[in-house]
From TrEMBL:
The lineage of its organism: Bacteria, Pseudomonadati, Pseudomonadota, Alphaproteobacteria, Sphingomonadales. Mg(2+) 1 binds at S90, E224. The keyword Membrane does not apply. The gene is trpD. This is Anthranilate phosphoribosyltransferase. PANTHER family: ANTHRANILATE PHOSPHORIBOSYLTRANSFERASE (PTHR43285). One of its GO terms (cellular component) is cytosol. InterPro entries: Anthranilate_Pribosyl_Tfrase, Glycosyl_Trfase_fam3, Glycosyl_Trfase_fam3_N_dom, Glycosyl_Trfase_fam3_N_dom_sf, Nuc_phospho_transferase. It catalyses: N-(5-phospho-beta-D-ribosyl)anthranilate + diphosphate = 5-phospho-alpha-D-ribose 1-diphosphate + anthranilate. It comes from Sphingomonas xinjiangensis. Catalyzes the transfer of the phosphoribosyl group of 5-phosphorylribose-1-pyrophosphate (PRPP) to anthranilate to yield N-(5'-phosphoribosyl)-anthranilate (PRA). It comes from the Bacteria. Residues 73-319 form the Glycosyl transferase family domain. Its cofactor is Mg(2+). One of its GO terms (molecular function) is anthranilate phosphoribosyltransferase activity.
Length: 331
């Protein structure tokens, strides 16, 4: 007979030891699903602490399938779930930043709440997701970019997915993707859809140890830097982003968020390809703003305006589009 361990009461913040044991039990399947459901909902209602977030991430990191990344590799990733259904900004940023010479270990998955996640859009562009996952370490070393398909790297999450869908509300696992990158990157630009929660999330990231990272959030609850409203940034390690960021800081125009509303994977893929081919407009400016921040975190740009210019050059001289073509052909 299987003996189930008990989860601690989430009525009050958990100690580091209690949180570590709870998430180990959840991911190892030693707890009944009913207990997990109650625990996750209660934690969400109360509000997760930085310790709980960090220990959940440690538990996921201990159970993932890792790859080795080059020195200086970065991830550009959002928590998702912001409800704005924009085009794939962080995916485009990853290609542009990699075209600038910074290795990008892009962690992502299929859409959960939007119509097209990173995986969906890359697949629509012609990238074979299974082969890209299998060759992620090779493409990261040879091309400077990889897509770390979450389904391939986090087997412990297989039993949690159906439970999360049944709960049908945000839980701590909605915050985990950026904190459990299989390449163990030490430089990250992470978007979170809750500006008020950014400092707590940054505290968790600091506990996990990074060289340079920034947690960003648009004022309207966007999990990336906004081209409509001001955004906030919380720096960790040696990152030096301004605490408050506007498009003007990068020499870019403001655009309503509706101007970058996305669609299905085919729609988003076409928009991304046209962006890399030089199309101007709101999508380009959103990508340049966020790429500028990523290049500052990577240490290759000192200011947002310098980073935006560097990113624009990588698009305009064709490096971004050529990289996408080489990546698709490689796998």
């Amino acid at each position: 007979m299987t003996t189930f361990s008990l989860l601690p009461s989430p009525a009050t913040p958990l100690s580091r030891e209690s949180a570590a044991q709870a998430f180990a039990d959840i991911l190892d399947g030693t707890v009944p699903e009913e207990a997990i459901e109650h625990f996750l909902i209660a934690l969400s209602v109360r509000g997760e602490t930085s310790i709980e977030i960090a220990e959940a991430a440690r538990a996921m990191r201990a159970r993932l399938i890792p790859i080795t990344a080059p020195a200086g590799a970065i991830d550009v990733c959002g928590t998702g779930g912001d409800g704005h259904h924009t085009l794939n900004v962080s995916t485009a940023v990853s290609l542009v930043v990699a075209a600038c010479g910074v290795p990008v270990a892009k962690h992502g998955n299929r859409a959960a709440s939007s119509k097209a996640g990173a995986a969906d859009t890359l697949e629509a562009l012609g990238l074979d997701l299974d082969r890209a996952a299998a060759q992620a370490e090779d493409t990261l070393g040879d091309l400077g970019i990889a897509f770390l398909y979450a389904q391939h790297h986090h087997p412990a999450m297989a039993r949690i997915g159906p439970l999360r869908r049944r709960i049908a509300r945000r839980t701590i696992f909605n915050l985990m993707g950026p904190l459990a990158n299989p390449a163990h990157v030490t430089r990250q630009l992470i978007g979170i859809a809750r500006p008020d929660y950014a400092p707590i999330y940054a505290e968790a990231l600091e506990q996990l140890g990074v060289e340079a990272a920034a947690v960003i959030s648009g004022e309207e609850g966007l999990d990336e830097l906004s081209t409509e409203h001001p955004s906030i940034a919380v720096n960790i390690g040696s990152a030096t982003l301004p605490a408050r960021i506007t498009p003007e800081d990068a020499g870019l125009a403001r655009h309503p968020l509706a101007a970058i509303r996305g669609g299905d994977p085919a729609h988003n893929a076409l928009a991304l390809r046209r962006l890399l081919l030089g199309d101007a407009g709101p999508y380009r400016d959103a990508v340049l703003l966020n790429a500028a921040a990523a290049l500052m975190v990577a240490g290759t740009a000192k200011t947002l305006s310098e980073g935006a210019a560097e990113a624009a050059d990588a698009i305009d001289d064709g490096r971004g589009n050529a990289l996408l073509d080489r990546w698709i052909a490689y796998v």
